[in-house]
Amino acid sequence: MEKKNLVPQLGIFLKKDTAYLILAGSFALLTVVTIISACKFGSYLLPDTIGYFKITIGFSDALASLSPFYPFLLSNFPLSLIPLFDRVLFLSLITSVLAIYLLYRIATHADRNEGVIFFSFGISLFSWWSFRVLGSAHADSVFYLMVLVWLYIFIWPDKEDNHYFPAMAVLSALMIWVKLNALFLIPLLLIWILIDRNWGWSIVIGSMIASWALFQWVIPENILQFHLTEQVAGKQGLITHLGLFYENLASWMQVTLGLVISDTLSQLIPKPVTFIMGLGWAFFLTAYLLMNKNKRENKTYQLLLFGVVYTLCFLAFQQWSGYREVNYRTLFPYLLVISWATWITLIRLNQKKIMILLAICISGHTMVGHGLLWQRKDVASLTLAKEFHQSEVRKNIEGVLEEGHLEIRTDAPEKLMLSFVDLQVLPIQPGNLFMEGKNYPLSEEEKLREREQALESLLSGKAVIVLFNADEFWEQVAESADVASIVDDRVMILSLSYLP
């Protein structure tokens, strides 16, 4: 198919229809607020962030729970030429720019409505759930980009090209080294072979199996291997299995509804309601795929097949492992294709009013999300950690640390954890406990117990306490003869006092 220059098409499109102008305005608005948030905060800081930083600077123990390709990019040319914090920000910028370029390439393959496709797909790309993966995650953002490339090659270009299957084989094999979620492509392609009757896909499947075997040989103690051998859920009874299925399916539907009304509002819908809706939605998607399997060239069909197989594999794995980590970050490949399939269907049916309503809903809750984010002062962000890393406070903490110190206890771990990757950086009074893929709130009694453990670590000489907002309890501790105290720019640093 002949590729077109999209720029003149966009100009004609904007002049032609005032209604569609709202799509362009929504896309432009979301682009601006995304840029502001990205510049203000950078990537989010998660426990995985420490692992990626450790791998990048040479500590390989984190490979047991993380995949290696992302830190490989950070530690090699040309990113190795710039400071580590800036590498993450720069790589995030690259993935976002390439994602927009891919949307442009997809739009150029359309027979008509090129501008509509570009703007509507772009609204999905910069919506609240997508921004928090593509613009704020780490390896997930690279995997997101590779999913975009995979879908582009799978659906839009000429499959008769001699380089088609080798390109897909290389891309699919590489994706395993970024996120092990890519293994779902194996059952997807097995199903696609039965539908498409093109055995060229066996080359892609073979490359993925070989890549997984090599990955397993290089990193035998990886996160997937841990789950497959532990079989946590396999040790539980039928009632527990049913409860896990109920919760995960209900959460899956809540996340799906978050495409339109935000995942915060969707969490307010009672789980029994979303569970029933989830059963209905799953039945509809499965029935559509079974009844339309002869329409394999239909782009909507290909997108929905991708999303359904990913969801089935993901939920089956959650059921197997006993996990409940069903959220936008784990489901973003499914959310991406569902949103695209929705836009394509509305464009084909010429449902302009529904498209405008959808664009307003997505833009509205995304703008609210960014607005609330800008007002927060406790965002665990890369820019915050970078600012601390360059501060005098960090140097003072380093001056207090000795060989016997194994950990830092603090009320702001997100500020310190990337500056002291060789130590444990623990919260003094954590609000939540992450278990089986979900955060569970701690009681006041449990929080106080954590505080007592922090005090015990301090007095045993194992920990240094760093407090950005010291309360009365720690101010009294600082007055103890057994404790050395330093206050720098309202930051209190406590350590065991070694008297002569």
Give a description of the structure:
- This protein is α/β, with parallel strands linked by helices.
- It is built from 23 helices and seven strands.
- It has a five-stranded mixed beta sheet, with helices on both faces.
- The model has no long low-confidence stretch (mean pLDDT 88).
Helical residue percent band? 55-70%
Strands of the largest sheet, in order across it?
2-1-5-7-6
Low-confidence stretches: none
Rounded to the nearest angstrom, the radius of gyration is 25 Å
Biggest beta-sheet profile = 5 strands, mixed
State the distance separating the first and last CA atoms: 82 Å
The structural class is: alpha/beta
**Mean pLDDT, all residues:** 88
Range of strand content: 5-15%
> Count the strands?
7
The ordered string of helix (H) and strand (E) elements is HHHHHHHHHHHHHHHHHHHHEHEEEHEHEE
Short synopsis of the structure:
The chain has helices at 6-16, 18-41, 47-56, 69-75, 84-108, 114-125, 128-134, 139-155, 164-176, 185-196, 201-218, 223-230, 238-261, 263-266, 271-291, 299-321, 328-348, 352-375, 382-389, 392-400, 413-416, 444-459, 472-478; strands spanning 407-410, 424-427, 432-435, 438-441, 463-467, 483-488, 491-496. By secondary structure, the protein is α/β, with parallel strands linked by helices.
